Amino acid sequence: MKKFLKEMTDEELWQLFPVILSEHKSYWKDYYNTEKYLLERIIGENIICINHIGSTAIPGLIAKPTIDILMEISENTDTAQLLHIMEGNGYIYTPQPKNPAPHMMFMKGYALQGFEEKVFHVHIRYKGDWDEIHFRDYLLFHPEVAEVYGLIKLELRQIYEHNRDAYTLAKSDFIKKITKLARESGY
Question: What pTM was computed for the model?
Answer without folding.
Answer: 0.94
